[in-house]
């Protein structure tokens, strides 16, 4: 008789996405091995956003969020490029009471360590995941679940998850070949220590507990994004400008720091306060930006993709990490003791049908927000703003759509269809019937 069974699962990639899915599947009772290509599983970069649709899964898995030393965001602020005066503000003061979970900003390394402790530590439900470093994936056989590594090792798993990022080897193994182009904008990242800014008498942006943006209102590529992390001790700046003013498409994070003069060069007319912050920036690094066309599927045989491996997106919705976390959440649910009946093919088919449409929609919205900040979740609700204009009012992405979504209901509906049984809950594709979205009210089918 078909029923739940414990699986031996291989996860390629030990970043935030890989650790999240290892943790989710551990909690669902499976044996998980994480393979990391480097000699240490870690993250590069500084800040990472975790809105309620991501945070809910951290609590679902029993993560002690305080260990990530997050900033609890209270506002989204878009400022005038030259004066720094607020142009559009979205207040998050009732965010947690409305959606049940907070909007956090983490330092990537702290978030990674927080997830690592839960995934591979002895405490908590399920058997601790194994982490093997220096295991760079060379190829995957999607039919047999066999992974071949560059160090000569081979491993066979019931299920293989490609969480190996934008340059995914696993993606190629399931015959997906990206159609992509360089973005029209370039990005340099810099960190500013709050204590250094305060010592110089500059504005203490950490006190705002906000994601802050300069520019982006006029269809131009110039935009500064400030995200506080490490409890406000670190200010993480993402600085966008037209690619013709500096092309970093062939450079990657982790090389020699770029000179601060290079960071300041594109911004002669920038608000003096934020420009003074950038002038004391450290660890100036390029971030390559590519625009990917949506992939046709996320699964093949015994293999599935997760996070940037399956749906790489521009950073302008601050949803990249949340989409990876949601992917992990979906796999944890699909393979738990309530829903998994031993049929891996069925579960992966539902994973594909649940995750691909939602991630693709966020991916498209992130591309639009690259040149129009009014498309950004939160600001997309601020229709009273004098400069407000979006490409298609009915197609815009909102906080309501992101946070009212119930993945359990989406999975139940898709499983019911696959098993030819009725689904009677008051949801359609995870959205509650009666929810009023820009595209219209979610209607029950007749």
UniProtKB/TrEMBL annotation:
Single Gene Ontology MF annotation: monooxygenase activity
This protein's record includes keyword ATP-binding: no
The FAD-binding domain, residue ranges: 8-363
Keyword annotations: FAD, Flavoprotein, Monooxygenase, Oxidoreductase
Record keyword 4Fe-4S present: no
Pfam families linked to this entry: FAD_binding_3 (PF01494)
SUPFAM superfamilies reported in the protein's UniProt record: FAD/NAD(P)-binding domain (SSF51905)
Domain of life of the source: Eukaryota
Family per similarity comment: Belongs to the paxM FAD-dependent monooxygenase family.
Descriptive protein name: FAD/NAD(P)-binding protein
Species, as recorded: Glarea lozoyensis (strain ATCC 20868 / MF5171)
């Amino acid at each position: 008789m078909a029923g739940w069974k414990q699986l031996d699962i291989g996860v390629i990639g030990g970043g935030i996405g890989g650790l999240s899915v290892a943790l989710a599947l551990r909690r669902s009772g499976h044996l998980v091995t994480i393979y990391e290509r480097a000699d240490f599983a870690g993250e590069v970069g500084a800040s990472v956003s975790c809105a309620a649709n991501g945070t809910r899964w951290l609590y679902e898995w029993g993560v002690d969020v305080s260990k990530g030393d997050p900033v609890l965001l209270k506002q989204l602020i878009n400022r005038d490029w030259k004066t720094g005066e607020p142009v559009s503000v979205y207040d998050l003061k009732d965010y947690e009471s409305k959606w049940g979970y907070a909007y956090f900003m983490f330092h990537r390394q702290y978030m990674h360590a927080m997830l690592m402790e839960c995934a591979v530590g002895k405490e908590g439900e399920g058997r601790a995941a194994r982490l093997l470093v220096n295991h760079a994936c060379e190829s995957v056989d999607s039919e047999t679940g066999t992974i071949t590594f560059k160090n000569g090792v081979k491993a066979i798993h019931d299920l293989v998850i490609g969480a190996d990022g934008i340059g995914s080897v696993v993606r190629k193994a399931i015959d997906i070949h990206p159609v992509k182009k360089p973005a029209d904008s370039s990005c340099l990242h810099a960190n500013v220590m709050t204590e250094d800014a305060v010592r110089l008498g500059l504005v203490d942006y950490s006190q705002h507990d906000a994601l802050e943006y300069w520019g982006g209102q006029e269809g131009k590529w110039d935009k500064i994004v400030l995200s506080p992390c490490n409890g406000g001790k670190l200010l993480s700046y993402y600085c966008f400008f037209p690619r013709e003013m500096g092309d970093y498409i062939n450079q990657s994070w982790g090389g020699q720091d770029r000179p601060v003069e290079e960071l300041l060069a594109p911004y002669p007319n920038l608000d003096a306060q934020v420009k003074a912050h950038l002038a004391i920036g450290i660890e100036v690094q390029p971030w390559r930006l590519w625009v990917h066309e949506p992939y046709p599927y996320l699964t093949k045989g015994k293999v599935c993709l997760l996070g940037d491996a399956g749906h790489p997106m521009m950073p302008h919705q601050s949803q990249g990490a949340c989409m990876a976390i949601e992917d992990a959440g979906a796999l944890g649910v699909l393979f738990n003791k309530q829903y998994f009946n031993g049929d891996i093919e069925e579960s992966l088919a539902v994973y594909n049908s649940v995750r691909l449409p939602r991630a693709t929609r966020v991916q498209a919205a992130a591309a639009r927000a690259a040149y129009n900040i009014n498309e950004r979740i939160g600001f997309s609700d601020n229709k009273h703003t004098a400069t407000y204009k979006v490409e298609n009012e009915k197609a815009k992405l909102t906080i309501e759509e992101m946070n009212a979504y119930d993945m359990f209901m989406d999975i139940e509906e898709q499983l019911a269809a696959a098993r030819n049984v009725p689904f009677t809950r008051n949801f359609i594709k995870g959205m509650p019937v009666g929810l009023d979205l820009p595209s219209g009210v979610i209607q029950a089918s007749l």
